[in-house]
Design goal:
Helix content: 25-40%
Order of helices and strands: EHHEEHHHEHEHEHEEEEHE
Largest sheet: 6 strands, mixed
Protein name: Transcription factor Tfb4
CATH superfamily of the largest domain: von Willebrand factor, type A domain
Radius of gyration: 23 Å
Strand order of the largest sheet: 3-2-1-4-5-6
Number of helices: 9
Number of strands: 11
CATH class of the largest domain: Alpha Beta
Structural class: alpha/beta
């Protein structure tokens, strides 16, 4: 409990999604300006917990990701006027984060169509940053690397799943598992995201879908402010159920029933004669058995078209995986 804690925060900065979040038709509308004020207060609380706590803020923007703030490098920050009523580190961090977000959003106004948010890019940058500060380099001592103990990542998401990012986000999850980095997810707006649910579950983090978005700060402070070393002493919210569906490698669609290549573990939505990843060829009899094991598709009146055949024994080298 006396160890320092590092927090890497990833902000989903999709202009279109934040425009929908602020719509008056929502039960609890949350404008981006209010969201940012809650987030900055939460970051100030993290810094105030312990002087040695470190912080990094990343922005997931349409088509790119950037680092908005790093507590290890604030030399290029703006000049903050002296204020006896404000703690200078808080005011400096608030100014840098707000200024960088404003500059990036102004650049987006000149763009035409809005590309998908680069959430995976921000996640990989956060993992690389944590790896750099937690490992002792040739010119640093063990005491310097100990400052970044208990690293964790918090994702504030408003965008839906992007099926084409399934493979890179799973690679990021495996990297976080290997380095014992907890990934927490707060779904601020929109439907649940399958991939982020899996990220939180597999790394031992928390996934929370807000019921009252106007109470964002309370959720952040009560659920995500305690460092990993304290979570064994408190009741951190956990997921009741996790959606473990995957995206197929052929069409990048999230599937309920997938066919897995036993050589490279690639997932396909239907049996294929040749694996597009490892180029393994499958026997025709294997493909016929797999097609026969697929459940019948319900018709419009709710009944199945024909009697579904019982599933056959899993075939090799390709087998069916049911979720």
């Amino acid at each position: 409990m006396n160890n320092a804690s590092h927090l890497s925060l990833i902000l989903d900065l999709s202009p279109s999604q934040w425009h929908l979040s602020a719509a008056p038709s929502n039960t609890h509308p949350l404008p981006f300006k209010t969201f940012l004020s809650h987030v900055l207060t939460f970051l100030n609380s993290h810094i105030a917990q312990m002087h040695e706590n470190s912080l990094a803020v990343f922005g997931a923007l349409p088509g790119k990701s950037i680092m908005l703030y790093s507590s290890s490098d604030v030399s290029g920050g703006p000049e903050v006027p002296a204020d006896s009523n404000a703690y200078r580190p808080f005011k400096l961090m608030n100014s840098i984060v707000a200024r960088n977000i404003e500059a990036e959003l102004e650049l987006l106004e000149t763009m035409g169509d809005e590309p998908p948010v680069a959430l995976v890019g921000a996640l990989t940058k956060a993992l690389c940053y944590i790896n750099r500060i937690t490992h002792t380099t040739s010119g640093s001592s063990a005491e310097d690397s100990a400052v970044a103990a208990d690293p964790r990542i918090l994702i504030l998401s408003v965008s839906p799943d992007l099926s084409s990012s399934y493979i890179p986000i799973m690679n990021s999850i495996f990297s976080a598992q290997k380095n014992k980095i907890i990934i927490d997810v707060c779904k601020v707006y929109g439907a649940d995201t399958v991939f982020l649910q899996q990220a939180a579950h597999l790394t031992g983090g928390s996934y929370i879908d807000l019921e009252r978005r106007d109470a964002l700060l309370q959720y952040l402070v009560m659920s995500f402010l305690p460092p990993p070393t304290m979570r064994q002493f408190i009741a951190v919210p956990k997921q009741d159920k996790v959606d473990f569906r995957a995206a197929c490698f052929c069409h990048k669609n999230i599937v309920d029933i997938g066919f897995v290549c036993s050589v490279c573990l690639s997932i396909f939505c239907s049996p294929v004669p040749v694996c597009s990843t490892c180029r393994t060829k499958f026997p025709m009899k294997t493909l016929q058995r797999l097609n026969a094991s697929r459940p019948a598709v319900p018709s419009a009146n709710g009944s199945a078209n024909g009697t579904p055949r019982p599933p056959s024994k899993p075939a090799t080298p390709m087998s069916a995986s049911l979720r």
